[in-house]
Amino acid sequence: MAVRVARSDDFDAAAAFLIAHSRDVHGVAEVDAAILRVAWDLPGFDVERDSWIAENGGAIVGYAAVTAGGVLTLASTDATVAAELLGAARVRASARGDAALQILVTDHDRGTEAAVSSFGFTRQRSVTRMWVGLSDLPAPTALPDGITLRTYVPSDAVTVHALLDRAYETWDTEYMRISHDDWVAWMTNDPEFDPTVWFLAERGGHLVGCSLWWSSGWLKDVAVEISERGNGLGRALVLHGLHELAARGIASAGLKVDGANPSGAIALYESLGFTPVRIETLWSLSLEAGDPL
Question: Tell me: the pLDDT tens digits for 111-139?
Fold first, then answer.
């Protein structure tokens, strides 16, 4: 078994390995080649410096990648392979100056959980994945007085990205910003990006809230400015999106909610009919710049 940096011509084999690994872990494949292509094409991602492949007899048996900000991908069921991949990722992230490595691990992915735990990662908090059927939704909620709603256009990118950063940093001590170019590429090059289901709430022409959906029915992000919280804007944004998706024939919608979110998000989503289907755990490994280990 040998671990080496990935190369551009590894793409097809790496995608096939990740799809098969996801199917083994989850029962269905939750990654696809299009998503990997977006990740590899990010402006801030260098395939030959930020991703690694483990091979045995010419076959891929492990994969790891670390994006700017220290977000880690790891796929391997062998403890020795996983440890070598994690070591490579730690060296790269530390040399780049990332404060930590972070990875979300599903509650039934025992192999990855054991690998990161034994490597020194610590459990931070839970993230709940929730789903709702769209056949019997609560009635739409009126927007707060003075709020108008429209859909996204490319010139909104800077203000939307800034709103998300502000919203998450108010409660998430582990939140790590990424460059604006990487954010735009990650979000708008996704195969399920559809600007007509990115809803922006404004007061007096200023952005104060948003709900950003994938076309399949997944709520990627929802955020409300602190000054607008508590007036029902978040509920109105989510319900608006759910009804729009239902009108397009989407049968169900999903999202993730962080257990550290203090806004009562889980209670909000449960009141809209969402039910938990899976728990994921955020694991983190603190780094020091220049750490040679």
Answer: 999 999 999 999 999 999 999 999 999 99
Q: List the helix and strand counts (H, then E) for the chain.
A: 9, 12
Cα separation of 141 and 265, whole Å? 16
Please, what CATH class does the domain formed by 136-250 belong to? alpha beta
Per-residue pLDDT tens for 196-220? 999 999 999 999 999 999 999 999 9
Q: Which CATH number fits domain 2-128+282-286: 3.40.50.300, 3.40.630.30, 2.60.40.10, 1.10.260.40?
A: 3.40.630.30
Q: Where in the chain is the domain with CATH 3.40.630.30?
A: 2-128+282-286, 136-250
What b/e string do you get for 173-207 counting C-beta neighbours within 10 Å, with b at 16 or more?
Answer: eebbebeeebbbbbbeeeeebbeebbbbbbbeeeb
In angstroms, the CA 158 to CA 4 distance is 37
- pTM comes to 0.91
